[in-house]
Write a structure and sequence with these properties.
Distance between the termini: 14 Å
CATH class: Alpha Beta
Strand order of the largest sheet: 1-8-7-6-5-2-3-4
CATH superfamily: NAD(P)-binding Rossmann-like Domain
Structural class: alpha/beta
Helix content: 25-40%
Largest sheet: 8 strands, parallel
CATH topology: Rossmann fold
Strand content: 15-25%
Bound molecules: NADP nicotinamide-adenine-dinucleotide phosphate
Length: 249
């Protein structure tokens, strides 16, 4: 289902909502964080590097937006104990969770399967697929405590149509689509809505790594697309369950 990239954010429309965003320190994750904070949500910014998270925090607060919470966690090495600790911390501080946005991902490498670096394969599958599985598993109890919760997996076109040389990234995005569909069916009768979203191309480091020779000046910025996520966490996401969403350019 195609949805518009632009959404008119209304001040305080997400006031009181607590939403966790992974990879929130830069790229699309930071743009999403800023727009959610603009809508009044308290964003739990999860990222692997505290220094980078602190810089992102300053950018949010200096813009006069709702103050976020920082949560450093390396999704490649995170253990079940660390996910349990995250659940305990969110439970203690907020008692529930309204939104979970699985945004963090790595490209891995652009390589034929025949030559694909095995270590990088495992890292990519861990960050792009296994970490979202564990994060979701540990946060479902808190999502269940919200009146109307949303889980959004940021996917990509390579997760819907296989393309040569996209290796572990393409495999992980295909798998996340299947995982999200399974989850949406399991949670069908609950208050938790689960969907995937292909945001389309954006000028970020991931895109630059995938297309180093591209003249990217005409590509949209992440901030051109992030307001749509506010809509999905709010009114536009009310009746969406188990959908493969695509942002229009
Ligand atoms: N850009 C596009 O054109 C495009 C198109 C379709 C889909 N997408 C999807 O959009 C999402 C965001 O991508 P982006 O373009 O914003 O990429 P990006 O600029 O490269 O950002 C990736 C984010 O993931 C985080 N991350 C990577 N490894 C991590 C780890 N081990 N633990 C915690 N965080 C980790 C990065 O943190 P560090 O700063 O610490 O590395 C960064 O915040 C991804 O799911 C991507 O697949 C992007």
């Amino acid at each position: 289902m195609n949805i518009s990239s632009s959404y008119e954010i209304v001040a305080d429309e997400l006031k009181g909502k607590v939403i966790l965003v992974t990879g929130a320190n830069r790229g699309f994750g930071l743009a999403i964080t800023k727009d959610l904070a603009k809508a009044g949500a308290t964003v739990i910014m999860l990222g692997r590097d505290l220094g980078s998270l602190e810089n992102a925090y300053d950018a949010v607060v200096d813009a006069g937006l709702e103050e976020p919470i920082l949560y450093p966690l390396d999704l490649e090495g995170a253990t079940p104990e660390q996910y349990q600790e995250l659940q305990d911390n969110v439970e203690r501080q907020f008692g529930h969770l309204d939104g979970l946005i699985h945004n963090a991902a790595i490209l891995g490498t652009m390589m034929p399967i025949e030559q694909y670096d095995i270590k990088l394969w495992y890292s990519t599958i861990q960050i792009n697929l296994s970490a979202p599985f564990m994060l979701t598993q540990f946060l479902i109890p808190l999502l269940n405590k919200a009146d109307d919760a949303r889980v959004l997996f940021i996917s990509a076109e390579q997760g819907r149509e296989a393309k040569a040389y996209w290796g572990a990234y393409g495999a992980s995005k295909h798998a996340i689509e299947g995982f999200a569909k399974t989850l949406s069916e399991e949670l069908e009768k609950t208050n938790i809505k689960v969907n995937t979203l292909d945001p389309g191309k954006m000028q970020t480091e991931l895109r630059r790594a995938a297309y180093p020779a591209e003249n990217a000046s005409g590509n949209p910025q992440a901030s051109d697309k992030s307001s749509a996520i506010v809509g999905l966490m709010g009114v536009n996401g009310e009746s969406l369950q188990g959908q493969q969403l695509t942002l229009e350019d």
